[in-house]
Structures are given as C-alpha cells and as structure tokens.
Amino acid sequence: MVNLNKSGPKPTVLDLFCGAGGLAAGFQDAGYRVVGGIDYAEAAVQTFRDNIVGAKGMVRDLRKGDFEDIASFVDGEIDVIVGGPSCQGFSTSGGLSKAAGRDLTDPRNRLFNNYIDIVDHLQPSWIVFENVTGLLLYNNGKVALDIVQAFNEIGYDLAPMILLAADYGVPQLRRRLIFIGNRTGSAIPFPAPTHGNPTLWKNYSLPFAHLSRIGAGGVGALPHVSFVDACGDLPPVIEGGEVDGVPYSQPASTEYQVEMRRRSTEVRQHAAADLSTLDRTAAQTLLPGQNWTNLPKDVLPARFAKIRQYDATTLLKRLRDDFPAYTITTKFNEGTTGAFIHPTQARTITLREAARLQSFPDHFVFAGSAAQIRQQIGNAVPPLLARCIAEAMLPTVMRDVYDVEMADLRDVVAVEIDRHEVDPLKLHGARRKAKDQQAQLELV
C-alpha cells in the first residue's frame, strides 16, 4: 500500500463546464493534478485560472463540435473528466442516447451530446458530473435513464447517487444528483457521510429516497456545520457595504473557520447587496427561522396571495445561526428568491459568506462583477464535497490508471454495476466499505 504524495503519480483531471472551479479545487486538494478547465464564461475561466494552481483555462462554447482544439489544450492523456452540462442541457423530449434516437435539432441536447462525444474522444478512465435532483423527474425519468444508456454505449458504467452537502461538512442543505462512472469495470465508490442530523427530514417524504439512503446522520456522525460555525468570525457589514482586503479582526473559533482561513490573512469580497423595499422590510423585522408568512399581509405583493404556505417555506426566510444554510443559488442577494437573509444583520448574505457556505476558502478570490461572481458561486459544486468524492475514488483510480495499490482515504459506499439491471437508478448492491476493508455493511 502507498499513500499519494508530491513525488508520486497523480491522476490528471479536466474540468468541463468548469465555472469557478469547485470540482477542480476539490480534486486538486485530494491529490489529483488538474490540467485545465473549459467554460464559455470569461469571468469564470479567469477565476479558474487565478485559483486552480498549475491549471490552464479555455474560454469555449462546448456546443460547437470538432474537439481537436480540446485535445491540443490538454496535451496528453486525461484520467478523469469532471463537470457536465447543467439541467438546461437536457430537453424532456427526443433522445440522448443513440438507441433512443438522438434529437440533434434541440440545442439543449446538442450540448449534452457534444459532452458525450468529448468524453468518447478523450477516453478518460473515470467521469464525474453533477445535476439537480429534479433531473430524475424529467420526462418521467426517461432523461436520467437515457444518460446512463448514452454512456453505456461508449463503454462507461455509470451510477447516480443523491448527496446532501451538509453530510460532508459543507454548511449547506444542498441536495444534488452526482453521477460517477468508469470504463474500467471497477465498482463505483461514493463517499460515506461524516456528518448528519437524524431528525432533519423527520416530517418530510424525500423524493428518490432510494438514491439518498447513504446519508441519514447515523451513529458516530458529526453534527452539521451551522451558519455561525462557518461565518461567525466575519466582521459585520451593512446593506450595500463591503469589507475587502482587511485583516481578520478576531481569531477563528471553529475548525471550519480555520479551514476557510487556510493560506489567507485577510477578508476578501465580503460585500452585501442593496435591497428592494420588501427585502429590506423582511431583513429588518423577521426573527431567525421566520419567513414570508410571518410578515404583515399589507407589505406583501399581490402575487403572494396565490402562494401555498407549504410550497414556499424558504421564501423570504431568515437563516438561523445554529443551522446550516439552505441551497445557495445564483440570486442569494435577493430575499424574495430563497433563504438568504442573514441571521442577525439587516441584509442578505454577502459574496464571501455565500462562498464560505459553498466551502470556498477565503484565499479563493472571484473575478468579474458582483452578478458574475454570484453566478460562479451559486452554480459551483462545493469544493469540500468535491474533495470527499475525489478521495473516495482515488484508491480505485490509482489502481485502474497506474496499477498502484493505496490505502483508502475514507469510508466509501461501493456500487456494483449490472448493465442488465432493468432499472439502474435503484442502485441495488450499494454497500458501505470501511477504511480497514474489514467490515462490509449492506445499506437498506
């Protein structure tokens, strides 16, 4: 058994649709060598170049075919491709796989089909990409099944799993569908959770529970990281104000804050947005955990009368200090779009608070306008979640790519792939694998 070190071999990674580089940052932290990232947004690619050490960035529209420029860009063999089209990259009609009949006239399908073709062209051993859980609803699940089939057709086994970012130390209740695949025939490892809250979903019926069964806050799980755990050391900021390039005014008080300050000596991009009248009213009056239903009806626009209370529980919601944030989107500056009001200050969360809630460390500085930075932060895979995925995969990737055996870095849930499975989304055969490789526990 060996441990990966600076002098040893490192699997190479290409990040497609890279954005700011959340996936790349996590894989780099886990010991992979990130060769480059490709995205159509210039500001995002600049952020990627500035923060992913040793990696190149390419501004390119991946809807355009002919991938020789991409092959030249990576200039060598790629072991892992991470990243993939967003949920807008799939239509709910037509086909994605050849067997289903590819609908090449739909520009959304063209993006995904080009992604498939890039993977087929570069032939990485492993692939990882993320999407919203709602993808499983598209066309009654046909799109998700088509994705699995499309990768099968070019030689890749693919397994999906819904992961909750908070279960991996990210201070955010962000549920995302993660696909991991390979063309080596190896079992597919997902990271076993390290954190949890067994009462979190107590009164809810989660959709696709069979795809999120590896996290539930079991025995020995650490508590979820809260908002104050993540951001409590940052200085106060008024609405429309900014703190940038200022040394920390107080010491870090939690492990998470220490991690966020790694390689940084000052607060950067701690900027709060100006608010609408309604957002300002909510930020000045709501108590922690309250939402739009706790506001006087006469301050709410007429459209709120049509909203069912149980359908919009995070709308105009004030966060709680002692609880993780909800999903960080690209519009976290607006209280009317989600749960983005600071727990104690009369404003929505800042760029830096959102970055920390996504697990971007303070030394990670974003390029572009405030709107472009919000886009980069909200669309990113949390780097800490990406690192957990990368660490779970690394021993198997090292064996597949370099024929090198190394000790497991963390507990994993291994998924055995059977292409003859009628419904591969049920993920029969997932099992927990301990780091010492002695205990194997069936998940039920």
Record the SSE blueprint.
Layout: E1 12-16, H1 22-29, E2 33-39, H2 42-51, E3 56-59, H3 68-74, E4 80-82, H4 107-122, E5 126-132, H5 142-153, E6 157-164, E7 172-173, E8 175-182, E9 188-191, H6 227-231, E10 242-243, E11 246-247, H7 255-260, E12 266-267, E13 270-271, H8 277-285, E14 325-326, H9 351-357, H10 370-379, H11 383-402, E15 412-415, E16 431-433, E17 440-442
Parallel strand pairs: 1-2, 1-4, 2-3, 4-5, 7-14
Antiparallel strand pairs: 5-8, 6-8, 9-15, 10-13, 11-12, 15-16, 16-17
Summary tags:
444 residues; alpha/beta; Rossmann fold; DNA Methylase, Chain A, domain 2; 2 domains; 7-stranded mixed beta sheet; 4-stranded antiparallel beta sheet; 11 helices; 17 strands; 15% strand; globular; disordered C terminus; S-adenosyl-L-methionine; transferase; SAM-dependent_MTases_sf; DNA (cytosine-5-)-methyltransferase; methyltransferase
Secondary structure tally: strands: 17
Provide the residue-averaged pLDDT: 87
Oligomer: single chain
Describe the largest sheet. 7 strands, mixed
Give the H and E element order: EHEHEHEHEHEEEEHEEHEEHEHHHEEE
- The coarse silhouette is globular
Catalytic activity: a 2'-deoxycytidine in DNA + S-adenosyl-L-methionine = a 5-methyl-2'-deoxycytidine in DNA + S-adenosyl-L-homocysteine + H(+)
Active site: 87
Keywords: Methyltransferase, Restriction system, S-adenosyl-L-methionine, Transferase
Enzyme class: transferase
